[in-house]
UniProtKB/TrEMBL annotation:
Keywords: DNA-binding, Transcription, Transcription regulation. CDD domains: LuxR_C_like. PROSITE patterns: HTH_LUXR_1, HTH_LUXR_2. Residues 163-228 form the HTH luxR-type domain. SUPFAM superfamilies: C-terminal effector domain of the bipartite response regulators, GAF domain-like. This is HTH luxR-type domain-containing protein. InterPro entries: GAF (IPR003018), GAF-like_dom_sf (IPR029016), Sig_transdc_resp-reg_C-effctor (IPR016032), Tscrpt_reg_LuxR_C (IPR000792), WH-like_DNA-bd_sf (IPR036388).
């Protein structure tokens, strides 16, 4: 898929739209496939204390979903050990890989991308495609890392602490705009939904980014989610 047809903000908003682990991982895999035109993929959750990882989601290939493996095995083990994205030119040549011999994606390459949270690798996304450019790997890392908070929150490990004691920093109108930003709506769509002018919406978005200390919409949404300011919010309750 061409880079111009993939919108990171919309993908991240969709991933955070339903904070249940299975849904988060399936949506991450779906957007990964859209981004790279990949044939298959999987996500594994890391248990560094036990020295193992578990296949938690997959598409397009049978990666032994639900099974657990030592952290030195497979593409996931490569990425965990390297602490950075790893491209394997031909997956079939990887010793201790977990795809069945007849699986067609074994003949192509694989990109394994670690997902970080507070200095630790908490998951690894593996994507199978004929080839990966440097730009494609960079885009994969951006998408997967933007999903880290959703994975940690729904996996029940290393959860962020409770919301800060200080009140939510947004006005009711800003919360309404922020929720629609989370859904991936454009300025014009938000304006139509709330009965505002696009210029007014732009001012509210600017206020949200200023209060979250961020420079783009995606980062503002992720910061609000991580801080507990957006959980359970909807345009109706926010504007109420």
């Amino acid at each position: 898929m061409g880079v111009h047809s993939f919108q990171l903000a919309e993908a991240v908003a969709d991933i955070y739209g339903d904070l249940r682990l299975g849904t988060v991982l399936r949506r991450l895999l779906w957007h990964t496939a859209r981004l790279t035109d990949s044939a298959a993929g999987s996500v594994s959750l890391i248990d560094a204390g036990a020295g193992r990882y578990t296949k938690a989601a997959e598409f397009g290939a049978f990666c032994r979903l639900g099974d657990s493996f030592p952290l030195d095995e497979g593409a996931t083990g490569r990425a965990f050990g390297s602490r950075r994205p790893v491209v394997i030119p031909e997956y079939g040549q990887l010793r201790s890989g977990h795809l069945v011999a007849a699986d067609r994606v074994r003949r192509g390459s694989a990109a394994a991308v670690p997902i970080w949270w507070r200095g630790e690798v908490v998951a690894v996304s593996v994507t199978f495609a004929p080839a990966f450019s440097v730009r494609a790997v960079d885009d994969l890392e951006t998408l997967t890392q933007a999903s880290a908070a959703a994975i940690v929150r729904t996996a029940g490990r290393g959860r962020p602490g409770p919301p800060p004691a200080a009140p939510v920093p947004f006005t009711a109108r800003e919360l309404g705009v922020l929720e629609l930003m989370r859904q991936g709506l454009t300025y014009r769509e938000i304006a139509s939904r709330l009965g505002l002018s696009p210029k007014t919406v732009e001012k509210h978005v600017g206020a949200v980014m200023r209060k979250t200390g961020t420079r783009n919409r995606t980062a503002a949404v992720v910061t609000a989610l991580e801080s507990g300011w957006l959980m359970g919010c909807s345009p109706h309750t926010a504007i109420g």
